[in-house]
Specification:
alpha+beta; GROEL, domain 1; GroEL; three-stranded antiparallel sheet; 17 strands; elongated; disordered C terminus
């Protein structure tokens, strides 16, 4: 019979604290790698929080629920798995403290545990409501103006302006800081440069960065080729698409020769399989020979039709008959069998050719023109390398090398997570009209009747970043406290210490946020205080970005109204003069959008955890559909033990 457990707040806190103790071993700049071992003796090192959580053999349903929430979050943002656990544990601690204080002064509930659970559930729900309704405004007014903004420029272009080089340098710093938490100090610089090179090759003037990043992420499994047995430094970007199959017929073209190709989702000639099967059973009968001869003539008509269209390459989804391969080889036509669905889909999307399933319906719209098609040797395997002639987007593929399969797969997962992180960074945050109103109040000016109304949404430029090292947490901590005081000043009779007031919620979330920088500087408490003081002084000494002087700096040449221009730029990131700022971005930057989504995801998970009334223990295996890693990655890690 299944065991039923009535979860208490302290039990939830204990479960999350155990997960926190595991991820803390690899957290921060001084964090180490975790060694995974399998029953077969295979070992793997990793700093990825998702990999670590995936490898754990979790029995408690609460722990499984938390890990699944982490998976769902990182599947979208590509980052924040370890911060997720730390912030969740910190919020549970401050809520537990607040609930215990309330129980000490009230006796309205017969059960102390029931009252603590009810108080914690109420706090979690109100925090989630606060995060959904007001947190975006707090970040846009208290964090974003003190950061910088990335620029999506081509680093390989000639005669690049100076400010573009600076922005591209910041993009590399964003990627370097990200890869440092995944791959360590050794490979973070290399993969940041490789990512910038890869993105610059994919750049298209007619497509937004978010579109390209989404396209690459969706097709990453076919856009990269893992190669084991080589140093990581051998990883590179190559032009075109790599089909992870070899030619089934002899390769007969010269290099860089234009090729026309057709994608088949079925058999080139179904009767050829039937004739071959009958011939094998009844090879001496004249009727079978006549049937085979008729089939061969029909197959010759199909090949002739393909040759009339100039087709010399067939990409087939299934294995073809020996008759098809023999006749195609005699006609100088190359056949590639068993091409995966993802590769065929990407080929059709990039080439513009429509796949066909009936060999008798081939027309010009089904034919794709390739700049070249040739074999390529990557590691111990030979694949097909091709480039498209008139593609709107010039695709490029990635070759990721590593000493072993574990290291290669780890680098590939980190690279894909970096693309997802960039995609999240490039998504504009949504705020309400409250942001515009607050920013105008900061500017010290009143709105004129003729001025435009504040923007309702999408008022934040994409690509907002702040320096790493707890800067975001310190800025948001200060902004939340100011937000609480602002509500208290606007309503002096509002209770400050009740769990229903905005000031108390702001302080509770602000205190919980400090767990991240505290862990970053856990080996140097003095640096923690220095960094906190530095950020506080920076905010106090710098003029507000929406003051009249900064309005003049932000004014566009076409506008003579500083206030109007400031309203249009409410909540926008500014291009920071990195060399003259009090603290620079040389140590790396992190995404504001990723941090914002992380907090919302943690608050949602917190509310779900504390709403549980009972835990039913079962022996059902952990459902891994939410995990974004490939099935092979899960097989490598789910059976491993964390040492």
């Amino acid at each position: 019979m299944s065991h039923v457990e009535r979860p208490h707040l302290k039990h939830v806190l204990h479960t999350v604290s155990v997960l926190e103790a595991v991820v803390l071993r690899s957290f921060g700049p001084d964090g180490g790698q975790v060694l995974f071992t399998r029953d077969t003796g295979q070992v793997m090192l990793s700093r990825s929080g998702t990999r670590i959580l995936t490898a754990l053999r979790l029995e408690h349903p609460l722990a499984r629920m938390v890990v699944e929430c982490v998976w769902k979050h990182t599947a979208v943002t590509g980052d924040g798995s370890k911060n997720f656990i730390l912030l969740l544990a910190s919020l549970l601690r401050v809520i537990h403290t607040a609930a215990c204080k309330r129980c000490n002064v009230s006796h309205t509930y017969s059960s102390r545990e029931a009252m603590e659970n009810a108080t914690a559930r109420h706090l979690a729900d109100t925090l989630l409501a606060f995060g959904l309704e007001e947190l975006g405004d707090v970040i846009s007014t208290g964090v974003v103006p003190y950061g910088g903004v990335l620029s999506w420029e081509d680093p390989s272009a000639h005669a690049v302006p100076a400010h573009t080089n600076k922005d591209m340098h910041t993009l590399q710093k964003l990627l370097t800081a990200f890869f440092h938490t995944r791959l360590g100090h050794t490979y973070c610089d290399f993969f940041s440069r490789l990512t910038c090179e890869f993105l610059s090759c994919w750049k298209c003037e007619d497509k937004a960065p978010s579109y390209l990043l989404h396209l690459i992420d969706d097709n990453f499994s076919v856009l990269h080729t893992p190669v084991s047995g080589f140093p990581v430094s051998c990883s590179r970007v190559i032009e075109g698409q790599v089909i992870h199959r070899d030619f089934s017929t002899p390769f007969s073209w010269t290099n860089n020769q234009p090729v026309k190709a057709v994608v088949f989702s079925g058999h080139l000639h179904p009767d050829a399989h039937k004739a071959g099967a009958v011939l094998e059973l009844r090879g001496g009968e004249r009727g079978v020979l006549r049937y085979t001869s008729c089939t061969e003539r029909s197959l010759e008509c199909v090949i002739t039709t393909l040759q009339s269209l100039g087709v010399s390459l067939l990409l087939c989804a299934v294995k073809q008959s020996e008759a098809v391969l023999a006749l195609a080889g005699l006609s100088g036509m190359c056949v590639v069998e068993c091409v995966g669905e993802d590769e065929r889909s990407l080929f059709a999307q990039l080439s513009g050719a429509v796949p066909v399933s009936d060999c008798w319906l081939i027309e010009q719209e089904h034919v794709a023109t390739l700049t070249f098609c040739r074999p390529i040797l990557l590691g111990a395997h030979r694949y097909i390398h091709m480039s498209f002639h008139d593609s709107e987007i010039k695709p490029h593929s990635l070759v990721i090398c590593g000493a072993g399969e574990g290291q290669t797969d780890q680098c590939a997962c980190a690279f894909q997570d970096a693309l997802r992180m960039l995609h999240t960074t490039w998504e504009p945050m949504h705020t309400t009209a409250t942001t515009a109103a607050k920013s105008i109040l900061h500017s010290g000016k009143s709105r004129s009747p003729s001025s435009k109304p504040p923007l309702q949404k999408n008022v934040l430029n994409p690509g907002c970043v702040v320096p790493v090292g707890g800067t975001f947490e310190f800025l948001l901590h200060h902004a939340l406290l100011q937000h609480g005081h602002a509500h208290l000043d606007s309503d002096p009779h509002a209770p400050f210490h009740t769990d229903t007031g905005i000031p108390a919620l702001s302080r509770l979330l602000a205190d919980a946020l400090l767990c991240v920088p505290q862990q970053i500087y856990s080996h140097s408490p003095r640096r923690y205080l220095q960094t906190q003081t530095l950020v506080t002084n920076y905010m106090q000494n710098r003029r507000h970005p929406f003051s009249p002087m900064c309005e003049h700096n932000h004014r566009s040449p076409q506008s003579n109204n500083a206030l109007e221009d400031s309203e249009l730029r409410v909540g926008h990131c500014r291009k920071v003069d990195f060399k003259s700022d009090v603290f620079t971005l040389d140590s790396g930057v992190e995404s504001v959008s990723c941090k914002y989504k992380l907090i919302l995801a943690v608050l949602q998970c917190l509310s779900s955890l504390l709403r549980l009334d009972a835990v039913l223990h079962t022996h059902t295996p952990l459902h891994k559909q939410a995990c974004r890693h490939s099935s092979s990655s899960l097989e490598d890690t789910e059976e491993g033990d964390e040492d």
